[in-house]
């Protein structure tokens, strides 16, 4: 057991330690400040006694890359705004000089600043885009050589077309409701001498004016969307539809009109649907009336399929069949 002297000494020191802790806490509290951190699309407020922006970010669990850029907006007492530390991530850029391209990451604001930071000499050279151009992700920077030339030209941008379907207007009859206006685009080409030959390629496209869409009313009456596009039809008939294969029945291996059966041939009652009539059958596709059968009477169809299992899976269906023009 500790003796009484040790116990008394500990009791004397304890208040002093408590005072030290309280004084230290008061100093930290007096020197602490609230700061807004913005990074990776997030924003949060932290309280810290640190002064170095990088340390403040890392203290908050934010990893700062070597080429990342830190922007600081001081606090404003009059506007009652807090200090803001914003982290701008380094962006990938490609720098091409004398025909050699290399990818870098930079946190600098402009092309000139990025080239300076990377110690790339461009003195007396033409730089494209210009040195005061803001850095954007995947920007291509070209430092032109002695035999390099830039050519710029404007090209039109075709306006997009938006359709409004009118189910009452005959198919194929269209009416422009709002005429479109073409846009403008600046195309920059670079001509360079390589292996004794001049070669030209596009290095940038810049939209100068966005095109304005064209609004068109489109007649869609009596039409159906098929695998071959939208097609017109004369009428719709509700039919009972089954499927058959080449091995069924005791036929000659040819259809009633002398064709070798293929998927797209259907058996019909020619008194209801004449031979050679083109049809659209949902779930089967575009077909032609080219066969018949003893059980095919009235509003019945038999669709040909090569695969017996598919024919069984088809079963018996009642569908609207479109008689195409």
UniProtKB/TrEMBL annotation:
Every G5 domain range: 143-222
Recorded superkingdom: Bacteria
Cellular component GO terms held in the UniProt record: outer membrane
GO molecular function: hydrolase activity, hydrolyzing O-glycosyl compounds
Gene3D superfamilies in the cross-refs: Resuscitation-promoting factor rpfb (2.20.230.10), RlpA-like domain (2.40.40.10)
Record key words, sorted: Signal
Keyword Phosphoprotein part of the UniProt annotation: no
InterPro entries linked: 3D_dom (IPR010611), DUF348 (IPR007137), G5_dom (IPR011098), Resuscitation_pf_RpfB (IPR051933), RlpA-like_sf (IPR036908)
UniProt key word Transmembrane: no
Any GO BP: peptidoglycan turnover
Entry-linked Pfam families: 3D (PF06725), DUF348 (PF03990), G5 (PF07501)
PANTHER family: CELL WALL-BINDING PROTEIN YOCH, RESUSCITATION-PROMOTING FACTOR RPFB
Stated name of the protein: G5 domain-containing protein
Taxonomic classification: Bacteria, Bacillati, Bacillota, Negativicutes, Acidaminococcales
